[in-house]
Amino acid sequence: MKASALRQGQCVVGQLFTAAHRARVQPDGRLLRASRATSQLAASHTPAAELVAPTRRRICQAAAAAAAAPAAAAAAADTSVAQEYEAVIGIETHVQLLTRTKAFCSCPNQYGDEPNTNICPVCMGHPGSLPMLNQEAVNLAIRAGIALNANIARRSKFDRKQYFYADLPKGYQISQYDVPVCSAGFLEVDTPEGVKRFGITRAHLEEDAGKNVHGGADSLSGSSHTLVDFNRAGVPLLEIVSEPDMRSARDAAAYGAELRRICRFLGISDGNMAEGSMRCDVNVSVRPKGQEQFGMKVEVKNMNSFSNMQKAIEFEIERQVSLLQAGRGAEVVQETRLWDEGRQETSSMRTKEGLADYRYFPEPDLPDLEITEQQIEQVKASMAELPVAKRERYLSLGLPKADVLILADELATADFFDAAMAAGAPAKAAANWIMGDIMAACKERKMGMDGLAITPGALAEMITLIEGGTISGKIAKDVLPRLLDGEGNAGVKAFVEKEGLVQISDESAVEAMVDAVLAANPNQLAQYCSGKTKLAGFFTGQVMKESAGRVNPGLMNKILMKKLAAAAAAAAEAA
Amino acid sequence: MRTVCAAAQASLLKSIQQNVATKQQSAVEVTQAYLQQLKSVEGQVHSFLTVNEERALAQAAAVDAAIARGEAAGPLAGVPIAIKDSICTAGLRTTAGSRVLDSYLPPFDATAVARLKAAGAVLIGKTNLDEFCMGSSTENSAYQVTRNPWDTARVPGGSSGGSAAAVAARQCAAALGSDTGGSIRQPAHFCGVVGLKPSYGRISRFGLIAYGSSLDCIGPLTHSVEDAARLLNVMAGPDSSDATCSKEAVPDFTAQLQPAGALNDKCLAGLRVGLISQTIGEGVAPGVMGAVNGALQHLQQLGAEVEEVSLPTFDLGLPAYYVLALSEASSNLSRYDGVRYGQRASDDAAARDLRHMYANTRGAGLGPEVKRRILMGSYALSAGYYDAYYKRAQQVRTLVQQELQAALQQYDVLLCPTAPTPAYKIGEKSSDPLAMYKGDLMTININLAGLPAVTVPCGFTEEAGVQLPVGVQFVGRMFEEASLLRVAHVYEQTAGVAGSAQPQVVAGREQLVAA
């Protein structure tokens, strides 16, 4: 009850916060407290009254209106809707680049530090300060361009995008307008309907803005002031713009997931959507099937995961289709809508009354950006394996496609798998252990595979010990939690020996244990001999129990069955 | 050949440095002498916005202490220098002449300032200017109107008027200015001092409060060409904080400057000088033209070949300049929003939201000329107008640049007046912005082309019974300041103009430095 109320509260704050332009939800006391100390530097008295209240009103009105439409659509929900109309989807993705320092100054590019600690005269826009381009950001943009099969401009430039906002220190953002660093690429995505190719219009470098935190109340609506944290100001971004090539929410989610994979696999970005290091703005329109012309486009923002993105798009498609079907097509207007996770719907944030005039012009403080063939070759040579190449390689190992998609989804998993194979583990066995017990443990502990203490080498050794008969599969399963904590990293064999877990495969030892169990259970043996052969399982269990599970099951079974048969024969003869 | 040895202008900076280095005069004594002169005439000239007395004396004492310890004296040891208030000085109030930066303390030194300090210079104070360098008379300062030391009823020129007046009034040994469309050269001409605008990118812009970023240059205002060369030596060169700063090698700019006694009467033989036709026609005051013609004749006497050269695109520069400079300015000044530093409109009921905070802060903090230029620049960059204004102006800029470069293939230096008139009366043009803009005609093309140019005193003209100085402008090839300064130096050392008269306010107080 309390938790859900809190969650709902957060959603409201988050949404209104986004309404004031930027989607970074963090209703976080620590931030506010810390900000107060630096408020002299970075406080601004604000929009509370005018900017916020009307925005909220708009959201509420629009939400009420919007809620009605899809409800009707849902009532009439049938496949004919989907058959008559087609969605057209394009995505703009802002990706924070994994550089050590900011785009145009030497401040650390670091998330989550105390507010206004990673700042300097340059990223604070002090008079007389000048930007110096971070070449690391350029190299990451080139890397992304290569991965997206794009043209890399040998000569591009930076431009100023001008607008006023409290989180924008210079009153303009250094961006790229008409000559982006990457253009005309594509991304291939594996979907259940086969491999689909989505065009990439362009990818350009720019700087991020700071972050506004509204204070003085639990929610923005009553807030008395706004604090600005400039730690994020000047962080390098790559804005990747897709062609409007996607036709379903699933397409869009698949595109986003593959883009994120590329960014993570190649070290371009950590792609953390919850922290905002990857932000997707989705343009959705619908049109009658067969129609060439696009429908009216609506921008949807504020999705912090791909499953939310998929839901938001599905909602938006349904909303637009039902309005069209109801003859209310004029109500589909060019606007920006926010996804409200709590309400599971989109609602209007602002209507675009004509295009904003950003008064772009070439940035006079930076010379043209020249990229040499040599630089591109160097980036190419240092590039890690692309997700698609990884998947192909795993398929070529004979792994089933379902396994491949799981293993090559996260870089940490793939790296662990590759390292285990390099340490001698057979692919299928390693895959099974990783996808089974190890992933379950990760899920339980809420961490990636790189968070576990176990080394891939330890997993490989464990598999070798199972296959060589040194330990049983059952023992392995039992001790795995301890191995995950790193207890076997110095040598799994030594560990199981020390723990007395080595499988008993010595024939005479097993025979002795079987004999002892038979001798200790004369009644059951007699029943067995008289025809209750189901009791074989009882004896197996007893031997297992006596050996603390260490007995080699195959060998034990062979000996036990031989002994039981002999006993039964002897009993028959005696009778 | 006979040697020419007129009333040669010796290097003041060299004298001070040598006196201090040899302990003939301590840096503290020099600084005290200049501070005394500064204060005694400041009531008449109004050239300083901030006097850095305490720290200047401490800096001077540190220079003396280092020399006493036996450390090598820097090339500017003990030289009191004034800094235009558009150039950042760490911890020392820097306003750019604007209320919006009224109490702003920069967290860093401009690269040029840091290099001066490292060379032993003493920062004596910050000089007045047109707000954000927007103006040609220093009347647009939000704080005070600086007077021309030759006639305190007249303007010192601008926007580096405070620096030019301070040098002319002997309030400092030299000063830094900045030049976007003539802001060093025109006040040098008005105040009878030397003003050098180096090639674009020769001196780092880091710490120079931006007006028109693609045009802005820091440069020296001095008593002699050699002093300008000495300051350029210290400040020039690549800077890892300015991507537009040139990586061009920096020569010793004093190497070609021979002492007056070593110059013979044909020392400019073979030099090709082009007089820009478009700058000598109608609208140029006869007194200015007379002094410039005198300079031409003098150059010819020294063996130079002087020809007129016509630059048909010359008149196109002015409108192109005002489109480009104002477009950049409208963007550069967006940062003065009251959020992070500087003045913010008080938190009254009127500032109830962000929009009002911006409007009130900028409305109260920025002056009328600045607002006019922001409006014009924003207009030129607006959707639908960009091609007609900004883009067209860039094309014109390229033409102007090409034509000037072509002329400099033919001639070693180009020559023209610095401005059409000598210093005018305070208030005479302040109500007519267009007339004020036209006064920049002879200097702005040089900024559009990025070329180096230096204004050197070449004579006087009498206006209403007052002697007013006139300066001639020499324009050189890109990054060839060394040869440009050589020509200017030869002219200065032989023409007998520099040092031949003193402004009113310094009469009888010329000797601040031990001979």
Automatic annotation (TrEMBL), chain A:
Q: Which compartments is it annotated to reside in? A: Mitochondrion; Plastid, Chloroplast
Instruction: Say if the entry is tagged with keyword Ribonucleoprotein.
Output: no
Any Gene Ontology biological process: glutaminyl-tRNAGln biosynthesis via transamidation
PROSITE patterns, alphabetized: GATB, TAT
Keywords (alphabetical) are: ATP-binding, Chloroplast, Ligase, Mitochondrion, Nucleotide-binding, Plastid, Protein biosynthesis
Q: What is its EC number?
A: 6.3.5.-
Q: Does the keyword ATP-binding apply?
A: yes
GO (cellular component) term, any one: chloroplast
Which leading EC class covers this enzyme?
ligase
Q: Which reaction does it catalyse?
A: L-glutamyl-tRNA(Gln) + L-glutamine + ATP + H2O = L-glutaminyl-tRNA(Gln) + L-glutamate + ADP + phosphate + H(+); L-aspartyl-tRNA(Asn) + L-glutamine + ATP + H2O = L-asparaginyl-tRNA(Asn) + L-glutamate + ADP + phosphate + 2 H(+)
One example GO MF annotation: ATP binding
Residue ranges of every copy of the Asn/Gln amidotransferase domain listed in the record = 415-564
Sum up the protein's function in the record's words. Answer: Allows the formation of correctly charged Gln-tRNA(Gln) through the transamidation of misacylated Glu-tRNA(Gln) in chloroplasts and mitochondria. The reaction takes place in the presence of glutamine and ATP through an activated gamma-phospho-Glu-tRNA(Gln).
Q: How does it assemble?
A: Subunit of the heterotrimeric GatCAB amidotransferase (AdT) complex, composed of A, B and C subunits.
**UniProt record similarity statement:** Belongs to the GatB/GatE family. GatB subfamily.
Q: What is this protein called?
A: Glutamyl-tRNA(Gln) amidotransferase subunit B, chloroplastic/mitochondrial
Q: Which organism is it from?
A: Tetradesmus obliquus (Green alga)
TrEMBL record, chain B:
Which BP terms does GO give this entry?
glutaminyl-tRNAGln biosynthesis via transamidation; mitochondrial translation
Q: Which UniProt keywords apply?
A: ATP-binding, Chloroplast, Ligase, Mitochondrion, Nucleotide-binding, Plastid, Protein biosynthesis
Q: Amidase domain location, by residue? A: 29-485
Q: What Enzyme Commission number(s) apply to this enzyme?
A: 6.3.5.7
Q: Where in the cell is it found?
A: Mitochondrion; Plastid, Chloroplast stroma
- List GO molecular-function terms, semicolon-separated: ATP binding; glutaminyl-tRNA synthase (glutamine-hydrolyzing) activity
InterPro entries from the xrefs? Amidase (IPR000120), Amidase_CS (IPR020556), Amidase_dom (IPR023631), AS_sf (IPR036928), GatA (IPR004412)
Top-level lineage group? Eukaryota
Q: Might you report a single GO cellular component term? A: glutamyl-tRNA(Gln) amidotransferase complex
Q: Among its keywords, does the record have Nucleotide-binding?
A: yes
In terms of Pfam families, this protein maps to: Amidase
List the NCBIfam families hit by this protein, alphabetically.
gatA
Family statement drawn from the similarity comment of this UniProt entry: Belongs to the amidase family. GatA subfamily.
Function of the molecule? Allows the formation of correctly charged Gln-tRNA(Gln) through the transamidation of misacylated Glu-tRNA(Gln) in chloroplasts and mitochondria. The reaction takes place in the presence of glutamine and ATP through an activated gamma-phospho-Glu-tRNA(Gln).
This protein's assembly is summarised as: Subunit of the heterotrimeric GatCAB amidotransferase (AdT) complex, composed of A, B and C subunits.
Quote the record's miscellaneous comment. This protein may be expected to contain an N-terminal transit peptide but none has been predicted.
The protein depicted here goes by the name Glutamyl-tRNA(Gln) amidotransferase subunit A, chloroplastic/mitochondrial
Please name the taxonomic classification of the source.
Answer: Eukaryota, Viridiplantae, Chlorophyta, core chlorophytes, Chlorophyceae
Q: Which gene encodes it?
A: GATA
